[in-house]
Amino acid sequence: MTGAQLRDRFGAGLDEDQREILEQVSRFARDELYGWQQRMDDEEWWPEPTFPLLGKHGYLGVTAPVELGGAGLDFFASGLVVQAVARWNPAIALSLLAHENLCLNNILANGSAELGARYIPGMCEGRLVGALGLTEPEAGSDALGSMRTSARRDGEDYVLNGTKLFITNGPIADVVLVYAKTASDRGAHGISAFVVQTDTPGFQVAQKLVKMGVRGSQTAELVFQDCRVPADRLVGEENHGVAVVMSGLDMERVGLAFLILGMAERSFQLAVDYAGSRQQFGRPIAEFQLVQGMVADMYAELESMRSFVYTVGAEVNAVPHGSSHRDVAVRAAAVILQAARSFTSIVDKALQIHGGSGYIWESEINRLYRAGKLWELGAGTTEVRQLIIARELLGR
Q: Which of 227-236, 347-356, 372-381 has the lowest mean pLDDT?
């Protein structure tokens, strides 16, 4: 199968404008971002020009209004951008997703007009990098109920104290959307959201974390010690942070499914290319029926994933920006559950086709394989996704 034929297949289910977005960003990512993959993986290195470069080409703030520097497009278009970048550099795609879906979109949807005017233009340009501060050392799957980070009102400020862990973009962020308890006696209903600038006294990157996969996408532990945040940086209403969290998580799960789709496409293409070029017993291994069977299974899994991702992506577009809808929440959990499992199956077969060369650390298929486990852990584990779906379907 030629590269052109694969590109045509990878654009299935899209209209002309959507296909153009996907292919335009894919060309950009191949030419500008792909070459950084190896060093990012070897050194957990982050290329500083990344966000300004993405902003220069109009790939940041996809859903933000034009008057704030964005593209004024919909959520589906932002998913296509992530999908295309993930084909060529999954680590950058993950950092892009955290910046766009978890920080920028939540400020845009839930913050005041003043907050939007203060931060969105810089985030669209890539001058400001965003992150989400939700997970804590003792609050992962139970991120809301077990949250310990506090925010105490003191005059015109809130004073934040606590720790956040596994924060994507933590070491490079300029602004972090932080969740903290403003009414500890109210449990999950006493949480508020704040925009915290990382140059604020009392904010510290405690440690940069070294990961198994998507290396180079920066991850950190963040500490807030008497960190004073002006009260006008509150996102939404005090003690109503749960609505902000849930609308953001639904979008994160669907956005992450677009990212996984891009990685699955790349894994499939690498396997097909290798099967056509690798010679054994005097002929390409693509002529062996067992290899053909793996390719056929990978293709079926990939197309099933694509159909589900695009369908749920379109459903998210129909939900008012920043709101949460019960059906979309279940579908978001289901699409990331299916996408993660399908990717694990696809990349495993792709590595099997590569044989010993795929087991070598620096090979691209090896990087994709190592990255895959994160999709069963991040944005809610596989088990949490199952609970969300089952409770809705069974009425529990």
A: 372-381
Query: Which class is domain 132-239?
Result: mainly beta
Structure tokens that stand for 266 in this block: 């790349």
Distance CA 291, CA 284 (A): 10
Is 383 a residue of the active site? no
Q: Which sequence spans correspond to the domains of the chain?
A: 3-129, 132-239, 242-394
Q: Which helix (H) or strand (E) holds 194?
A: strand 191-197
Closest CA to 347 of 227, 265, 247: 265
CB 45 within 8 A of CB 37: no
With left for phi above 0 and alpha for psi between -120 and 50, is residue 58 left, alpha or beta? left
Q: Pairing mode, if any, of strands 130-133 and 175-181?
A: parallel
Q: Are 288 and 333 in contact (CB under 8 A)?
A: no
Q: Which of 252, 265, 301, 315 is catalytic?
A: 252
User: What topology is assigned to 242-394 in CATH?
Assistant: Butyryl-CoA Dehydrogenase, subunit A; domain 3 (1.20.140)
pLDDT, one tens digit per residue, over 288-343 is 999 999 999 999 999 999 999 999 999 988 876 545 566 688 999 999 999 999 99
C-alpha closest to that of 55 among 126, 122, 103, 127: 126
pTM of the predicted model over 0.85: yes
Would you state the structure tokens that stand for residue 250, as one six-digit string?
């639904």
Supply the Cα-derived Rg of the chain in whole angstroms. Answer: 21
Superfamily of domain 3-129: Acyl-CoA dehydrogenase/oxidase, N-terminal domain (1.10.540.10)
